[in-house]
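User: Sequence in, structure out. Go.
Assistant: Echoing your sequence, followed by the structure tokens.
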Amino acid sequence: MSTSFTSSFSARPSPTVPPASQSFEPLVKAVLKHRLNRNIFAFSAAFSLGFHILFWSSDDSSLSARLLSPSAWLVASLAWLVGVLPIIVSRKLNLTTHSTVAPSPRGTLAGALSKSSTCRILTVYTASALLLLSLHLYSAPAIRESLNLSIFVKSRKHPYYLNGSLIFLVTAQAWFALSFFLRNIMLERFVFRWSRNAPSNPPNVFINLPLLLITIGLFTLVTFTAYNVAFGITRVIVLPIVLRIPLVRSLLRPFVAHFIRGPWTLILPLRHLRLEFRTLLLGLITLANWEFAETLFNLYIPQPIDVSHTTAEPNVTLVSGVTSTDLVFLHFAYSELRNLATDSSPSSSTRRIALFSDQKYNPNLWSTLTRAALLRLGHDYQTLLRRGKPAPPSPPPPVAAPATVSNPPSTPILRQPIYKPLQQSPLSRVLNSLGSDSDLSKATEEVAKEVETLAKDVHVPELFRSVTASATSAVPASTAAISVAQNPPTSPSSLITSIKQGCCGHLVKYGPPRSREICTQLNEWLARERIHKRAEMSLPNRELDALVIESLSALVCASLTEDRYGVVQRDIPRILEAFLSFLQAAEDYQNEVRVLYVPPTPEELTQADSAVLHQKESTRVEVAKASEAISVVGDALKLGISDIVRTFGDKLTAFKFPPKTARKLQSFVDYI
């Protein structure tokens, strides 16, 4: 008789790869914090101190006196604290990974203004600019007295008239802040930008400092010129109209009535050259400090980070980073993985062998890595097929039909009389026949209808007509009232839109021809869709996709000699099929884009129509930019597939591929 024994040992489950939030992301955050403190804060503070000491003088003192003055250094330090540090912190807190690329500038502005963070960012820029202005006015009493920057004018008759010079300075700083903010939106500086070919050691930022100063100097000059024009239009046109509004007039006239009088607007800048120079200089200092800080952020933050080698299990840490849901950490993880896959050193080879032969985790490291990479490529592949449009909403789950309980069998109930009906008399039968729907009654109804039709054609005086017609005529009025009552009230947004359209219509109708032409061109420029922007919408994560493709292809090529158990070979058909499908979609889209450009014909070149030639040149430039954006993924796919085909050669015949994939792969085999 056999006896069974129970074991006291329990099966120990295999651990899973830890999430990125516990292993990879804290290490990357520590490095980014170090870069923020050591590079961005330190260099921006040094630039701000030097720029203020060199170009801003509180009392027209010499450079040597400012270098030796502790108060000058204190003011420069406070200027960095209140004017530059908030900008850097705002950029850090509002940095996003999801780009809101729109095909037109108007769409870009609308997408940015729809975010809740936009108002906060603009508030930070405006507050920093005004704090810088307050600091400079407080630290320079001589300049404040020479420019007469008191709050009210010195007048006994009108003691509450506001000082126009101070208003000019304050609104100029707010204008500079708004212009720089709009420039950052158009440049998409609040979106994480990555370049997979970025050098590990960034170049010295001070080498490109002259170009930065020239660029920001031209931008400041153009912005200040536009501000002077807007300020003059406000004084000549807007303010007189506003002061004609009854309630607003009684509120503003005691403070700004003197602005509509005085010298001509065109000669005001010539009479206040010193104020114009100080305003332009303060704007240049403000924007130069901001631009330098933004450049530091763009230069140091996207640099590659290698952190996995600092842990006890570097492969586990790296694969954990690949599974992150944040695109910023995905960039850093795949960048490090690409370096590991392409490095030919013995240490990297040892790490790849350990990666391929891992059996400690369930699923193993290679399966986790492959699944995350292919899911990333599949998501962006679907985005490319939709041409950047959002994914359609998933259909609602089917509602289960309620279960019907069948009635138990029962004896049917008879609802008919069971007794024989009584015999009717002959007179009752005749009366029932007349009251029923018999042929006689039908004939009577037909005769009545014919008589009614003939009576309609007979002239009847209005006095004897029925009141039905009047009641019927009143029905449309009530229906119209109901339809008016059902219309929703006008919303504030639609009211603002109608007012804007009305103002623009009057401007176009009554404005000068040149201004109407400029407004039309500006509206067309804002609304015209850019081809390259549409391509960027279709491939929003093209740099990340290229990193994924380069990493996977390099690991597959290395597995031919370093994969001891054939773990990678099982996934080669899936990887090649994903690469070839993505490549086919990219090539199809690139062909669609190239067809959009039609070179100018000889007749058009002979006629020298500037409008047509300019439009075609713009299309050519946009098509070239779109092709460049698509080629980021296309070139990486072609290179990766070529490397795999060149490495495995005839060994690829052992794998089975779908017919479409096999035909596409055969073209690479024939080419190589």
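User: And one key feature?
Assistant: The first helix runs from residue 20 to 23.
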